Amino acid sequence: MILIVSVSVFLATVVGVYGLYWILETRRESVQHRFKEVVGKADAPGEGGVVESAGKMLDSIWKRSTAKKVVETDLVDRLSGKELVGARLLLNQAGYRSPGAYHAYILVRWALPFLFVILSLVGGKITGMENRSIFLAFFAAGIVGFLLPDFALRRKIRKRQEQITDALPDGLDLLVVCVEAGLGLNAAFVKITEEFQLSSPALSEEFDIVNREMVAGKPRQEALRALSERTGVEDVKSLVAMLIQTEKLGTSLAQSLRVHSDSLRLRRRQRAEEAAAKTTIKLVFPLVFLMFPALFIVILGPGVIQIIKILLPVAAK
User: Is the pTM of this model over 0.70?
Assistant: First the structure.
């Protein structure tokens, strides 16, 4: 019981500290955003120079207060920068793009092992398990709790990528029709966003983000490269490379899209044939370990019983 109480107190402390850090970071970002709005209003025509000088003074105070924090966290950022980028990239590929998604993922990833450990300890004490068994359950629960969030996230990414891959050839067909009808690439992306909201929400969301980025002023090549990084799908990467190459060389966009759409459709058919060919291999294990033992019992069981009945009296004599 002392161990359970200690672990519970430690877990509550960790969660409380992390929650307080999260609230402070959110508050700092909101203060910075409001400060930028004040500075922006100071630049408006007709305003006096007092507001502008006050904005500059507050800006200098803010920079001096955050300089020490930047210096302290610079080493940590350099050591764990790749991990942070990788985690945020995985969350983007899974479709979690809210501002607090990364903090929630880190909180779950560190809190879940402690929760599983506490449940294993409580369950072991209630069921009356031995100390050795409780220790093994304790160790296994910690490992499972640490690996489960990453496993669930990667499973979500894989399903989302499969949805995008399956719907991309149909989206390219619509893109070809729109371009040949005289629409621009932005308008064609809007049309795909509208038409695929029900059949493929993931593909509709990705093209909607690309269109919004281009409308906001982001260059088309950068928006398309961000699309390939955000999805992580090989077909999307090849599509982005084709669109960028077409824009650089000035070739016909409609013809390039039609050829690429045919190749993607052929690739989807080949993937379906490959999956169908794998079914025979996948059926071997259920047949060997589940179907064949039952068949042997049903077919050979009566014969074995009769043989035992006949041979046992003879062996007894």
Answer: no
